[in-house]
């Protein structure tokens, strides 16, 4: 496992807080992501008057019908309220209640994660050790906390690894009879700035590939246009009719 030096976190500057009790509500990944986004906006914007369904849909890449469905679930749990066509989170944690929250980085929504990957990432941050920035948790516990299956959790862990937000390491367990078994994965949270640098590198590489493809396409179009304007000589065929015989 690679070591990434973590800068000292400022929970009220570089991160926005979510209550530790959030996973007790058994929210769907999409509802959890929407509540986190509303909490992020409320922490970022003062005064926060709410966000519309269309704004949430565009920011998180969900359909408006899906957003409305998750907002109804949040409303039933008394975690959100719609006022004047705009939604605001309820149960907002005060700054002085810092010991009862886990922090999420402000830049997390720049990665455009799927709701499932976001839920897994939030749970890992909820369970991580605040000094070593890692945690050892089984896939069953993650699946139970996020309402997904083990295989689905593994898929989203792979998405987080691809985004360089986390890295994993296999652990082992030795019993009293000195038998060695595979243990749960050790998850390490990579500093978000490192993940952002990787994201920007991939975006730049994608832009360069698009530019190269555009240049090649432009040359091909130019060659096709040049070949279409070449005038081919027309060869006329003269048909000679046979002369009539004089008999």
Overall description:
The chain is an alpha+beta fold. The chain is built from seven helices and seven strands. The protein has helices at 29-44, 53-60, 64-76, 115-127, 139-146, 150-162, 192-228; strands at 15-19, 80-83, 86-89, 101-105, 134-136, 166-174, 180-189. β2 (80-83) and β3 form a beta hairpin. α1 (29-44) crosses α3 and α2 (53-60) crosses α3 (64-76). The longest helix has 37 residues, at 192-228. The protein is globular. 27% of the residues are buried.
Keywords:
single chain; 247 residues; alpha+beta; three-stranded antiparallel β-sheet; 7 strands
Give the strand order, joined by hyphens, for the main sheet.
Answer: 5-7-6
What is the rounded Rg?
Answer: 30 Å
- What is the CATH C level class of the domain at 9-105, in words? Mainly Alpha
Order of helices and strands: EHHHEEEHEHHEEH
Give the termini distance in whole angstroms.
107 Å
Mean pLDDT: 83
- CATH topology of the domain at 9-105, by name, is Arc Repressor Mutant, subunit A
């Amino acid at each position: 496992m690679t070591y990434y030096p973590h800068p000292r976190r400022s929970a009220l500057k570089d991160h926005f807080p979510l209550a530790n009790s959030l996973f007790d509500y058994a929210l769907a990944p999409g509802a959890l992501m929407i509540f986190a986004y509303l909490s992020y906006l409320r922490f970022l914007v003062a005064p926060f008057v709410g966000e519309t369904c269309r704004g949430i849909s565009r920011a998180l890449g969900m359909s408006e019908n899906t957003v409305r469905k998750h907002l109804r679930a949040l409303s039933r749990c008394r975690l959100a309220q719609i006022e004047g066509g705009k939604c605001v989170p309820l149960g907002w944690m005060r700054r002085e209640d810092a010991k009862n929250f886990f922090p999420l980085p402000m830049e997390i929504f720049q990665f455009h994660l799927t709701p499932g990957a976001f839920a897994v990432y939030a749970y890992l941050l909820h369970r991580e050790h605040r000094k070593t920035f890692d945690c050892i948790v089984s896939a069953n516990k993650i699946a139970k906390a996020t309402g997904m299956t083990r295989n689905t959790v593994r898929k989203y862990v792979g998405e987080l690894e691809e985004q360089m937000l986390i890295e994993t390491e296999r652990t082992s367990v030795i019993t009293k009879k000195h038998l060695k078994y595979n243990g749960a994965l050790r998850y390490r949270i990579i500093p978000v700035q490192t993940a952002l640098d990787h994201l920007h590198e991939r975006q730049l590489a994608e832009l360069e590939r698009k530019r190269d493809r555009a240049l090649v396409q432009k040359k091909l179009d130019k060659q096709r246009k040049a070949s279409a304007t070449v005038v081919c000589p027309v060869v006329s065929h003269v048909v000679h009719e046979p002369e009539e015989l004089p008999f």
